[in-house]
Structure formats: C-alpha cells, structure tokens
Amino acid sequence: MLLNPVAARQLIASQGERVRWFEALPCDCRDPGDPNAYDRDCPHCSFGYVYREREVPDTVKALVHSERRSFLHAEFGYMSMGDLYITTMSDELPLGDWDRVVLVDRVRPKKEIVRRGAEDVPDPLAEEFPVKVLAVADSDTEFIEGTDWSFDAEAGTVLWLPGGARPDRTVYTVHYHYAPVYWYTGSGMTAARPMPGGLGSWPQTGRLEIKHPVEG
C-alpha cells in the first residue's frame, strides 16, 4: 500500500513506463435512451466509441503490474494470474472506461503473412503499433531493408522500393515487433480519492484487457 499521494507520484515516476492514451468518447450512433445500444455497422467508431489520442508528456508515467495469484473477488469476479493492472495519477493521466492504452516500452513478436499490393503502394501490417521489422521474406528469398523494402512505423506499412527485388508470389512473411494495446475497461477500478489533510489524491488503478469483452 502506498503511504501517501506524494510517495505514489514518486514511485510511478521512477518505476513506471511510458504509454500512449486514446480517450474513448461515445459515438453519435449510440442511443441516448440505451447506453448499451450502438450501430454495429457504424464506420466511425469501435464498439460505440470514437477514439482520439491525447498527448501524454514524456515525464508522465504509468505503473503497470500483473496479478501474481488467482482468486475470486466478491465484486469483480475471477481475478486471473497474469491479469494486468495500471496505476496512474488522475491529474496526469485521467483514464476512463473503455479508453485504450498502448504500452510503448513493451514489445511483442509477430510473424505475419502479408498480401503484396500494387507497385508503389505500401502493404499494411495487421497490428496497429508496429515498432520494428526484423525480417521480410518469402519461401525462396530474404529481402534486404533499404535495398528491397522500407518500413514506415508511423503508418505501419512495408513499401517495396524501385529497383529492388520483390516477391514473385502474392504473399510474403514479415517478422516484426509491435507495442501491445489494451482496453481500460474500468473493471477492478479503484477511483482516485482525496487524501485527508489536503495532501492530494490517491492514484487510480484499473484492469487492462487485451481484448474487448465483446470480442471474447
């Protein structure tokens, strides 16, 4: 247990990690009379929310930690070993229900089959936040970065360069690292509350989900 908000802020700043924050705002397709109803075919939103990235200064960190045991919580249900929780100072990073959080200091590997598009048209990768491409190859050839292809991390695409080799087949493989993105669902959340004596507010904590509950 953190002793006070000052100690909490210091701990998060020293042991926390950088994140990107995408705030969830209800889409116009939602029914004001039924907060759970939204247009499943709406082209503007994801599960009834529109996401806009909010700037997070490099000095602002979040403490991400995993559950070390499994147990049944009276309010939140089954808490599984390995579940991720995030702790932030609410005046620095005020996360809300259904916000998305990208853990930019962590990476996961992926080996993906990519369909080759038209010449001079970049091929998109499936993950939203790729950070580094390790290898591009087909069953016959491993292609050379800077000669055959280039990687655009911001767009999340592989572009085949003029004059370089290109796969003869319609598909090829990309081995890359990406930053994982989580849903802040509000389950298991401990809201920020004022500390007696005017010392400030306690941090807020909530669970991170790798998949939206609707996705299973």
Tell me about this structure:
This protein has 216 residues and is mainly β. 5% of the residues lie in helices and 39% in strands. The protein is built from 1 helix and 18 strands. It has one helix at 5-15, and strands at 19-26, 49-54, 63-66, 71-73, 77-79, 84-88, 99-103, 108-115, 123-124, 130-137, 142-143, 149-152, 157-160, 171-178, 181-184, 194-195, 200-201, 204-209. The chain has a 7-stranded antiparallel sheet with strand order 2-1-7-15-18-6-3. Strands 8-14-10-11 form a 4-stranded antiparallel sheet, with no helix packed on it. The longest helix has 11 residues, at 5-15. The model has no long low-confidence stretch (mean pLDDT 86).
Topology:
Blueprint: H1 5-15, E1 19-26, E2 49-54, E3 63-66, E4 71-73, E5 77-79, E6 84-88, E7 99-103, E8 108-115, E9 123-124, E10 130-137, E11 142-143, E12 149-152, E13 157-160, E14 171-178, E15 181-184, E16 194-195, E17 200-201, E18 204-209
Antiparallel strand pairs: 1-2, 1-7, 3-6, 4-5, 6-18, 7-15, 8-14, 9-13, 10-11, 10-14, 12-13, 15-18, 16-17
Q: Which structural class matches the secondary elements?
A: mainly beta
Outline? globular
Rounded Rg? 21 Å
The main β sheet shows up as: 7 strands, antiparallel
Question: Residue ranges: pLDDT <50 for 5 or more in a row?
Answer: none
CA distance, first residue to last residue:
32 Å
Strands ordered across the widest β-sheet: 2-1-7-15-18-6-3
Helices and strands, in N-to-C order?
Answer: HEEEEEEEEEEEEEEEEEE
Number of helices: 1
* Proportion of beta-strand residues: 35-45%
Average pLDDT works out at: 86
- Number of beta-strand segments: 18
What is the percent of helical residues? under 10%
